[in-house]
Amino acid sequence: MKYTIKNQEILAYNESEFVTFPKYTSQLINWANQNAQGTRAKIVGQMSDLFPEFMNSADNISLHNWEDWYLQRYPNAIENATERIYEQVKNLQKAIKLIDKDMIQDWVKDLVIHKTYNGFYVQKAILASLSQKLNKSYRLASPAEESVGIDGYVGETPYSIKPDTYKTMNRLPESINVKMIYYTKTKTGIIIEVEE
Predict the structure, then answer these.
(1) 166, 149 contact by CB (below 8 A)
(2) Domain enclosing residue 67, as ranges
(3) Are residues 92 and 128 located together in one domain of the fold?
(4) 53-76 per-position pLDDT tens digit
(5) How far is CA 194 from the centre of its chain?
(6) Residue 1 lies in a domain
(7) Number of C-beta neighbours around residue 71 at 10 A
(8) Nearest 10 degrees: CA dihedral of 95, 98, 102, 105?
(9) For residue range 7-16, what is the model confidence (pLDDT) as tens digits?
(10) C-alpha to C-alpha distance for 49 and 45, rounded to whole angstroms
(11) pTM
């Protein structure tokens, strides 16, 4: 069964409030928050634990009662998160004034030329070194294989190769169902972690 629940229906079911923001502002605030880490559990609490706790303890479950319950336990959290994010927004406001067409062209060139070359160069080196360790042949992925997240094969095993920072990027939409190889660049080389 497939169906959609519209925002108005969600409001009716849950007494929710939807706030609308001017175009691009929510994206920018979200981006600033990712850098500032203003809504991390250490700042605002772990919502996946707190909300069920509220649900189990509340006599009357409502938006207003949730707000009261939460603010009693974390009275400064909203303000602390706001301050962290606001400081980052001010940094972004300064930075955005520096961006001109030439800088964008440099950025695109760096992404398309330098980072692509470096990424594939690293992938090939990792696959070659792993193939030596396992005494198996290797090959880079075809475009069709790349489209499903495969970067290459060692023997018959497909691998996806990602920087170690990929592990912390929980906002990525892709789902990769192959063995992972994570790498960390250091001044002296690359640290590789191969999924068993």
Answers:
(1) no
(2) 7-98
(3) no
(4) 988 888 888 888 999 999 999 999
(5) 21
(6) no
(7) 12
(8) 10
(9) 656 655 565 6
(10) 8
(11) 0.60
